[in-house]
What we know:
The chain is mainly alpha-helical. It has one domain (7-188). The chain contains 10 helices and no strands. The radius of gyration is 17 Å and the shape is globular. 41% of the residues are buried.
Amino acid sequence: xxxxxxxxxxxxxxAARHLSTLLVGAADEQRGHIAxxxxxxxxxxxxxxxEVAELLIAAQAAxxxxxxxxxxxxxxxxxxxxWERASGHARAALLLPPAWxxxxxxxxxxxxxxxxxxAAAYAAALQKYAARHxxxxxxxxxxxRFPQMPLPGSAGALATSLGFDEWDAEVCLETxxxxxxxxxxxxxx
Length: 189
């Protein structure tokens, strides 16, 4: 069972609360085919939320085993295999919660990062998008349908592009690990 005191896991669980609206809509709907559509949407959201939470837990464990080194954690064979099996929806959605948490940290220094510089550049961009997010509200940053598509704004577009890029899945993984490590450091500071 996930540690529900973890702020990132809490964010994911909070976003999943939107499912209740869909389920209530399905229960109140008079026509069976519309109710089935609401339930199908709710089931898809639940599946993605669970997948995101599982990826986050695996990423946190890989980072712990790698002494908070994202490049080393990204090289872990079981972490890579799990990431490659994950849906593009889940990979994309996992990038937003740690970017939001990392927005208050010092900016990522791409040139100083020892791992994949593309991953560091993407992580820095996501961190910057979160820091510049005018609303200051995590649910607005994530979008009302989080973790489902479309993810809003520039951060959502970048996260979606990375999450669905099968050719560079390892870059997306390391991007996520950089943000998770930075957000975890921010929480413990």
